[in-house]
Amino acid sequence: LLNSNVVNDLILLETMMDNMTGRQKDACMLVRMLALRGLGNIASGSPEKVRKHGAKLLASMVNGMDDKDDPHNLVALEAMSSLSKLLDHVEERDIQSMLLHIAIRIRPFFDSEQPDLRQSSIVLFGNLTKFSEGNCEVFFEQILNGLVTLLLHLQDPKPEVVKACKFALRMCGPNMGCEGLCDMFLNHLREDRSLHYGEFMNNVCKHLMQSYPEMLNRLILTNLFYFKSNWVDIRAAAPMFIGFLVLHVDEEHCQQVDLDQLISGE
Asked: What stretches pass through the bilayer (predicted)?
């Protein structure tokens, strides 16, 4: 019903929205999940109302992501999917105060064993970058925190997760302050284009080490974590990533590398 504009004609929207918001404290997890789906559907049925009630709707989605009684993350998944729908219609001032909290909260889902959680969280992260202008430095830190993961998951076994990573990286590109990297993401990560991963990563690492050589150790440490990944293609991609980083860094910054740690792979 909330997916249809008929709720406006029947002057039911506000009443239904209040009822759905109230259901977020329901003892039944399925009810909480479906309440969030209904609230997210307002983006399709009454997008102009999303602008009016943006702060309330966003608060509901954040509460859903923080649901404490959600062992399989079904409520969080619904919250992330619905939030992605709402973001096209909310006022920027309503999202700005929650931007950092949401970005930090969804980051662990990038490596979830559940592919739908990986996909939804990564798509949502890409959508959040639209609002990063006012918090450029703060959000840039979140992009750097997620960059290795997004690049490695281009080798994800699930095509829908790979597609989500391509989207998120294309969205992150303009916020990274590196024109070469931005162009690479826009040109090579189009949905309809196949990717030669090794060649792509070689060029990405070249741009990373030209623009952010001081990030070398941080990028290496994040990659080391993926040496123990459950996905064989990601396990293989992580040492290749490190190899290309070390190949392209200049001598001055080589001292950042802890060779003992690197050789032991820990």
From this structure: none
